[in-house]
Amino acid sequence: MDRALEDFTHPAQGRELKWDLKHGERVVREHLVHVEDPARMQLLDEMAGRFTECLRPLLPGLRLSVIHGDANDHNVLVDEGRAWMDPRDRRVTGLVDFGDAVHSYTVGEVAIAAAYVMLGKDDPLTAASHVVAGYHKALPLRKEEMAALYPLMGLRLCTSAAISAHQKKLEPHNHYLTVSEAPAWALLERLRRESTDLPHFLFRQACGVESVPGSRGVVRWLESHGHEAAPVVGRDVAGNLPVPLDLSTTPVHIFDLSVDSGEFGVAPEPEDVEGWTRTLFQRMETMDAVVGVGRYDEVRRWYTSDIFQAPAEGTPEWRTVHMGVDLFLPAGSPVFAPFDATVHSVALNSGPLDYGPTVILEHRVRPEGPHGSEWTRAGEAPMARTAPDAPEGTDLPFWTLYGHLAADVLEGLASGQRLAKGQRFASIGSYPVNGNWAPHLHFQVITHTLGREGDFPGVALPSQRDLWRALSPDPNLILRIPDPGSGSSAGRPPHVSPAAASPGKASGAPLADPSGSSVQEILRRRQEHLGPNLSVAYARPLKIVRGLRQFLYDQEGQPYLDAVNNVPHVGHCHPRVVEAGRRAMAVLNTNTRYLHDSLVDYAERLVATLPEPLSVVYFVCSGSEANELALRMARAHTGRRDVVVVEGGYHGNTSAMVDLSPYKFDGPGGEGPRPWVHKTLMPDPYRGPFRALPGEEAGRASTSAGSSAPALPSSSTAPSGRLRPWSRRGGETLDLEYLPMAELGPRYALQLRDVLRRMEEEGHEPAAFFCEPLMGCGGQIVLPQGYLAAASQYIREAGGVCVADEVQVGFGRVGTHFWAFEAQGVVPDIVTLGKPMGNGHPMGAVITTPGIAASFNTGMEYFNTFGGNPVSCAIGMAVLDVLDEEGLQENARAVGHRLLEGLRDLMGHHPLIGDVRGLGLYLGVELVEDPEYRIPATAAAHRVKERFRDFRVLLSTDGPDDNVLKIKPPMVFTLQDADRLISCLDRILREDWVRV
Ligand code: PMP
Fold first, then answer.
1. Phi, psi of 424 (to 5 degrees)
2. Given a cut of 50, is residue 479 above it in pLDDT?
3. Model pLDDT, residue 728
4. Substitution site in 835, 837, 922, 958 for ligand 1 pocket (most atoms within 8 Å of beta carbon)
5. pLDDT at position 87
6. Beta strands of 549-704 (E only): which ranges?
7. Contacts of 697 (CB under 8 A, 6+ apart)
8. Beta-strand (E) ranges in 723-786?
């Protein structure tokens, strides 16, 4: 629109309008008297002054044209988009209310729009950056205009607050006139504390130009003069002068402290300062290094303190990218000035994991080359380039920061003090005074101080990485540490200085952290060399590089709360389990043909968790393999071939297991049931034909764990057949039967009896009934109480055996019991185990009765190359130990209860939630288009899952209609995690796409 209006003229374009930013400051001042609160009056006065001052030198460079002048969210029309559930798909289709159109600064248009977008946001500047980037794409902004954006946005906020104060007096009941007032005040308060430069640089970054004007000049100077620098650190030699250490020749070891580092095995916790000190200094000793080096521009997972967390729209982002170089040396080691300097500031940053005592030095140098004085060009950097005693355009300032120093510097050094190149001015500090880190110097170069004193961010948000690289270029331009990882400069990222390529005494990681392939690159390579039917979670796929407890970390070090991976049962990479595997692997890995303690120890330990007569164990390597073996055993024992399975059930990925899994053979690409496979109705009390009487429904899911069913309503009339339910088989109408809760299980089991009768009539005899005691792929279905007892009875009467597939739900997950079948009060004939058994190490098992084991002993050897090997047994044993020692079954019960209650509470607010069910930490939330007809809301479920990912919580969808949110986290999930998940779902379901 502004492009179209560039040449537009109108006789009234020059009218006087109080919203016109040309008159911003005057309008604010004129309205100040209407602001009643003196503190607010002062805020407005101060901010309007600050913004006007920034703006004044830029005015000659601003274009003028007729603009709409009020592009706020009340004036924008938006269509629904093609995918109604995807807010990103919506398009602006119109703009209304041209009442503020006026001939003014063209850039004022985007400043006004962005000022509104910032209101009420956790991260207003990022929100504004999106608007700026979009506008710049359509109508490129000049550099002066980029600089004017932020002051204009600020002036708009001031104008809005000032005029609202007046209008409130004139029309106290007109709410619309003051809609922006409260958020505008809040935003102004917040911006008062912030730098005015950072927004300018962020907007330049959004426009794709050099984000920090002049930073290239500093880099150019350092590239040609960095080698003249004096050493920054040294060694204290008793009784003698300290020895400066030239890092280009001193033996150094470069640590890999990146988020996916494997250098330290099971590394100490980030907060374990003693552990880290020991680990790092021992490693330096082993590597014969005098100095340990922590890398620049490295994504780390150390920054766990709240100070590293930035507010963002529902998605916390952690500052993880290290913008300095760390030099690890004993506490007390000397620190020298690399160049002549003036002390800029000295401060104690005393927060946990902060810098402790910190110094910033200012250096002034003669700029290099033809563009050396670029930074002083009009409009480029009008703010806060402090060059008080230097003639404009001659001196190029930059700063160096020294963090984690010894406390004596706080007394010994003052700002303004001059230091000569090579002069010692501080010592490396120790914990806890240094912010509680292993002793080291954090050394950082700064091209613009952002007006800060004594402090400057040492780690940056990944989303602002380019900007921070410009604010803090590579300190190795000064330190000149050789790069052990790269022989030549070819292929190195540009920020690694050429000097780094010279051979020296460095060991360890390459200076530039090879962050691996991008998401797009991995997808492309997968397409080339991996089967096309391997699926990828999420429309925006995740690259995950580390797991810890209930968190997964992406390549930017950002944590995702894992609410879906039940395989890392006792937590991702549990140190106890990792250690057990590591030890065992270094000692022996062989097979069950040799005698070994671990095999029998582990078998006994597993059997001890099971009821009699389940006492004979066969070890395998996966759940599919376990079910395969169970099938062979059942057939050997009964001499029959046929099997009964539950609709929607899943038992594995091998040929026979796909044949046994309705989830697969009835699903896409499936070929329907084989003649030897017989399905029985899924015992789904929510969507199936037999349902609890309405008054009993709410407590249904939680009653299956063996607790008593709620009392029946005294006079209940079953509304049988009154509702028209949706059926998963394509909209056919079911006759519903409403029963007391306690009768549901037996009623569904009667369906199995009918199947067995039909089989008998057709001459089929069952070898087995395979059943998941809590159905997973079927949609997190809790079997109604009494189902398995009746079903087992029917199958046994028909001569078959009962196989409980515990692959998903065993090992304490259901909370009340160690095995899920126990919640149904039955003892199966065969139990199959898998997924959580090895916490991610591929393990499975079949456990059965001596009688069935004897039948299976047909003369054919049963040999499994990997099943039951000493490494697997050690790992499996460690998992059982951790489960016991950390009380994880009880945790699953308590946290699962909290989730169930919290999610059920949400049902009252969100009609999209049809059902909440589950046992322990195995839960499902079924989304339906309306609660009465229970039509599956598949698209919405997908959207909710994707939104959870945006908020950094991982879960999945499943069920025959893929409309059930699956929650099955590692067992270390906490009450706090449960609350986060619940409030996140609440927040997502309040979003406007749900209401459309
Ligand atoms: N049974 C059930 C109930 C399962 O959920 C699965 C895996 N999702 C399997 C068996 C197969 O296990 P695996 O993929 O380890 O072979």
1. -75, 135
2. yes
3. 52
4. 835
5. 61
6. 551-554, 559-562, 616-620, 642-646, 677-680, 690-692
7. 691
8. 737-739, 766-771, 774-775, 781-782
* 751 C-alpha to ligand 1 centroid (Å): 25
Crossing angle for the helix pair 143-170 and 38-55, to the nearest 10 degrees:
150
The band of 307, judged by pLDDT with boundaries at 50, 70 and 90, is confident
From the number of C-beta atoms within 10 Å of its C-beta (0-12, 13-18, 19+), residue 990 rates as exposed
From residue 888, how far is each of 551, 809, 881, 974 by CA, in Å? 17, 14, 10, 10
**Strands, sheet with 801-805, edge to edge from the N-terminal-most edge strand:** 616-620, 844-848, 830-833, 801-805, 766-771, 642-646, 677-680
CA torsion angle for 102, 104, 107, 108 (degrees, to 10)?
A: -70
| 572-601 core/surface letters (b: 16 or more CB in 10 A; e: else) | bebbbbbebbeebeeeeeeebeeebebbee
Ligand 1 midpoint to CA 833 (Å): 9
Q: What is the per-residue pLDDT for 351?
A: 86
Task: Report which listed range, 171-185, 217-231, 490-504, is most confident.
Answer: 217-231
Q: What SS3 class is residue 993?
A: helix
Q: What is the DSSP letter of 872?
A: H
Cα distance between residue 707 and residue 251, in whole Å:
67
- Going by the DSSP 8-state scheme, the letter that residue 241 receives in this structure is P
**Per-residue pLDDT band at 81 (split at 50, 70, 90):** low
Amino acid residing at 887: G
Q: How far is CA 589 from CA 322, 809, 873, 875, in A?
A: 41, 29, 10, 12
Can you give the pLDDT at residue 898? Answer: 98
Token pair in block for residue 514: 């090879």
Closest CA to 801 of 642, 683, 621, 678: 642
> Could you give the CA distance from residue 349 to residue 442 in angstroms, rounded to a whole number?
13
For 239: left if phi > 0, alpha if psi spans -120 to 50, otherwise beta; the answer is left
| Beta strand residue intervals within 439-496, DSSP E | 440-446, 459-460
Q: Please, what is the angle between helix 597-607 and helix 870-885, to 10°? A: 40
Residues with CB under 6 A from ligand 1: 622-624, 627, 650-653, 772, 776, 805, 807-808, 834-835
For residue 560, the model assigns a pLDDT of: 95
For residue 502, pLDDT over 50 is answered with no
Residue to substitute in 534, 566, 629, 651 for testing ligand 1 pocket (most ligand atoms within 8 angstroms of CB) = 651
Largest CA distance in the chain: 104
State the distance from the centre of ligand 1 to the C-alpha of 804, rounded, in angstroms: 12
Pair 406, 331: CB distance under 8 Å? yes
User: For residue range 603-628, what is the model confidence (pLDDT) as tens digits?
Assistant: 999 999 999 999 999 999 999 999 99
Q: Which residues pair with 399 in a beta bridge?
A: 362, 446
Question: Which ligand 1 atom sits nearest the alpha carbon of residue 772?
Answer: 3
What is the helix (H) or strand (E) element at residue 76, kind and residue range? strand 76-78
Q: Quote the tokens at residue 896.
A: 């699962």
| pLDDT averaged over every residue in the chain | 90
In this prediction the pTM is 0.90
Q: Nearest 5°: CA angle at 300, between 299 and 304?
A: 135
Residue 426 pairs in a beta bridge with: 335
Q: Which of the residue ranges 234-243, 348-357, 838-847 would you say has the lowest mean pLDDT?
A: 234-243
| Cα–Cα distance, 806 to 820 (Å, whole number) | 7
Q: Which of 650, 657, 872 to mutate to test the pocket of ligand 1 (most atoms within 8 A of CB)?
A: 650
- Strands 642-646, 234-235: parallel, antiparallel or unpaired by DSSP? unpaired
CA distance 184 to 543: 38
Contact of 560 with 542, CB cutoff 8 Å: yes
R_g of the chain computed on alpha carbons: 34
Q: Is the dihedral of CA 337, 341, 347, 352 positive or negative?
A: negative
Tokens at 726, concatenated: 């949706």
Give the pLDDT score at 382.
40
Listed in sequence order, the DSSP H helices in 226-377 are 273-286
